[in-house]
Amino acid sequence: MSWNLALPAKVRVGHVTFGATYNYVLPIKLPHEDEAAGFGPKSYLSFSLSYSLGGH
User: Fold this and answer.
1) Structure confidence by residue, pLDDT tens digits, 26-49
2) Which end of the chain has a smaller Cβ tally under 10 Å, C or N?
3) Exposure pattern of 31-47 as b/e (b: 16+ CB <10 Å)?
4) In whole angstroms, what is the distance from residue 3 CA to residue 48 CA?
5) β-sheet with 2-13: strand ranges across
6) β-bridge partners, 5
């Protein structure tokens, strides 16, 4: 179980949309879980690219 903070950003150029999302994950230890199991905050960056086929 964890809390996740996501900060997305998107830029559209014509029919193409570029996206980037920063994610910060803060795990929450459950009562039955061992604390030495590698818990700790983590972060990562994800990217996306999409193309619109039609419309405005």
Assistant:
1) 988 888 877 656 678 999 999 999
2) C
3) eeeeeeeeeeeeeeeee
4) 22
5) 2-13, 16-27, 42-51
6) 24
